[in-house]
């Protein structure tokens, strides 16, 4: 029996009624914030994170109904099924076992009846040994020099997670190693990287689960041509991370080493597999990668075992659904007041928008667009304050996650300006922004009125250690899947990326024909694309446009 559509459940109706109360002036956040014990009532501690939702447009009654929602949709049972290896990715007939990647327990985890843990432990061990050899100089490039540059080639889930973590933890990185990312097929990305590396001391890490992704294959070819042009032997400069049996898992194409990821791990959930493990262990050392895994494991266990009213990612999912489906916000910003988390928002953007950007339930029943994910974006504070916060304060409202860190990674720099350290200045803003958004301000001049009543949550970490970053990573992963479980959508497939790829393939065929025969005509294509292809190949139409 499929579960009823969320919008047809009694709890949906109750929540919709609750939401109406929040349009009353007395429910403005400036009043709600005066409630006694507001912070204590609407905040949680768990797995090393503090999650404060006291500045959300919520009260005890609405919260009670949200907890009821968690029970009505059986969220923890769905999460348990995911962690136990059931085929929760129903449209692709697969398990979603990213949590197994960071399990250090002796308990088996079965997918298709087979314990996946031995293979996962083997990969971890292989990563540890490999990273030690590269970092210690036991494996060198083809001219015998130790590696000093790592170029990670991959896109989407085979890139964004590693980039988020490597930025977050770069204070711990080996100073002798520079890390570069080559994701975009745009030749500017390659040119930029090529101009910053020393080819002889460069290790290329090719990451692709499928090894069919056009951008990654094009960049891999470019890298091979570059190495050969420099007289280097690619087999001594390349390592691959891919699925067993993929086109890249090819023994006839020798590489220094090959690491497997598994089909039960989705790209955007793969940073704790070899996808993140190889580049992060090279850059930070395996021990730090393992600390990250242990932090993620703590959050996994918390999400699995804590009851809904104490469960951080589950509560964050409930709040997000409340904001989206019942209060009508269509976007959500992630604003870390911590520069090392500068790539958190792009990572969560893919994680969440690829997972929750769906239009049907997991068994194919149509949903209206308002019943699935919102638009995620973000930038670190205080930079965000000087770019788009004008709109956040006086334009269209959107909920925000403010993320703060008590102790910075660089505690040694303590000079003061206006009587405070840089970190204290950062905190003054980190504290003022959610308050200003919530409370607002009246003014005789309408242009200076702040309507307030703009919701936000605050997430606090003690520091940016690998363990805490792992906890944060898993918090957002679980928040994402809990939301999907509420809507009954599949957060593990991504058919929405296919149509554009197919169309690109048709256009590519036209380009191939033109490259082979300059007389090839684009006539017969749709008129708009004909125009652009003419512009690309001849420049004439562009000329016409400029003259016109
Ligand atoms: O690891 P691959 O197979 O190269 O895929 C890269 C990315 O492309 C996507 O399929 C979407 O375009 C992502 O889901 C995936 O992470």
TrEMBL record:
Keyword Chloroplast applies: no
GO molecular function annotation: carbohydrate derivative binding; glucose-6-phosphate isomerase activity; monosaccharide binding
One annotated GO biological process: glucose 6-phosphate metabolic process
Pathway: Carbohydrate biosynthesis; gluconeogenesis; Carbohydrate degradation; glycolysis; D-glyceraldehyde 3-phosphate and glycerone phosphate from D-glucose: step 2/4
Keyword Isomerase: yes
Gene3D superfamilies tied to this protein: 1.10.1390.10, Glucose-6-phosphate isomerase like protein, domain 1
EC number: 5.3.1.9
Protein origin, superkingdom: Bacteria
Residue positions of the active site: 354 (proton donor), 386, 501
Location within or outside the cell: Cytoplasm
Reactions performed catalytically: alpha-D-glucose 6-phosphate = beta-D-fructose 6-phosphate
Any one GO CC term of the record: cytosol
Function statement: Catalyzes the reversible isomerization of glucose-6-phosphate to fructose-6-phosphate.
Alphabetized NCBIfam families for the sequence: PRK00179.1
HAMAP family hit by this protein: G6P_isomerase
PANTHER family in the cross-refs: GLUCOSE-6-PHOSPHATE ISOMERASE
Protein name: Glucose-6-phosphate isomerase
Native organism: Desulfonema ishimotonii
Gene: pgi
């Amino acid at each position: 029996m499929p579960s009823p559509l969320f919008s047809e459940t009694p709890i949906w109706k109750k929540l919709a009624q609750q939401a109406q109360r929040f349009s009353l002036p007395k429910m403005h956040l400036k009043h709600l914030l005066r409630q006694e014990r507001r912070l204590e009532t609407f905040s949680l501690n768990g797995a090393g994170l503090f999650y404060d939702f006291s500045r959300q447009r919520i009260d005890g009654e609405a919260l009670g109904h949200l907890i009821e929602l968690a029970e009505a949709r059986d969220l923890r049972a769905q999460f348990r099924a995911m962690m136990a290896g059931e085929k929760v990715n129903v449209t692709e007939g697969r398990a979603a076992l990213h949590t197994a990647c960071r399990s250090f327990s002796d308990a088996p985890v079965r997918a298709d009846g087979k314990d996946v843990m031995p293979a996962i432990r083997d990969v971890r061990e292989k990563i540890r040994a490999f990273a030690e050899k590269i970092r210690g100089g036991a494996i060198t490039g083809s001219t015998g020099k130790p590696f000093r540059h790592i170029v990670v080639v991959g896109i989407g889930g085979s890139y964004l997670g590693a980039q988020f973590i490597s930025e977050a933890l770069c204070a711990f990185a080996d100073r002798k190693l520079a890390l570069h990312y080559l994701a975009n097929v745009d030749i500017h990305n390659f040119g930029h990287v090529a101009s910053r590396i020393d080819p002889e001391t460069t290790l290329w890490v090719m990451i692709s689960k499928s090894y069919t992704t056009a951008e990654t294959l094009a960049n891999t070819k470019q890298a091979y041509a570059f190495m050969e042009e420099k007289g280097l032997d690619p087999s001594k400069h390349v390592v691959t991370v891919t699925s067993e049996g993929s086109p890249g898992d090819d023994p006839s194409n020798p590489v220094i080493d090959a690491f497997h990821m598994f089909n039960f791990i989705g790209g955007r959930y793969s940073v704790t597999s070899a996808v993140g493990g190889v580049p992060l262990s090279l850059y930070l050392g395996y021990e730090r990668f393992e600390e990250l895994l242990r932090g993620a494991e703590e959050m996994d266990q918390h999400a699995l075992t804590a009851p809904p009213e104490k469960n951080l990612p589950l509560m964050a999912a409930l709040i997000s659904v409340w904001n989206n489906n019942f209060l009508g916000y269509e976007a959500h910003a992630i604003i870390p007041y911590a520069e090392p988390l500068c790539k958190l928002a792009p990572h969560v953007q893919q994680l969440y928008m690829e997972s929750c950007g769906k239009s049907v339930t997991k068994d194919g029943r149509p949903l209206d667009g308002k019943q699935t994910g919102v638009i995620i974006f973000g930038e670190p504070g205080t930079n965000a304050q000087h770019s788009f916060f004008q709109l956040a304060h006086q334009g269209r409202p959107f909920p925000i996650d403010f993320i703060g860190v008590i102790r910075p990674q660089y505690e040694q720099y303590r000079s003061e300006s206006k009587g405070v350290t840089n970190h204290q200045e950062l905190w003054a803003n980190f504290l003022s922004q959610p308050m200003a958004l919530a409370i607002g301000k009246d003014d005789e001049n309408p242009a200076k009125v702040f309507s307030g009543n703009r919701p936000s949550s605050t997430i606090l970490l003690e520091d940016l250690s690998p363990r805490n970053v792992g906890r944060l990573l898993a918090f957002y992963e679980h928040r994402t899947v809990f939301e999907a479980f509420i809507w009954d959508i599949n957060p593990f497939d991504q058919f929405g990326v296919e149509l554009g790829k197919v169309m690109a393939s048709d256009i590519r065929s036209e380009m191939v024909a033109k490259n082979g025969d300059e007389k090839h005509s684009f006539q017969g294509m749709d008129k708009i694309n004909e125009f652009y292809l003419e512009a690309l190949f001849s420049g004439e139409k562009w000329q016409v446009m400029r003259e016109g």
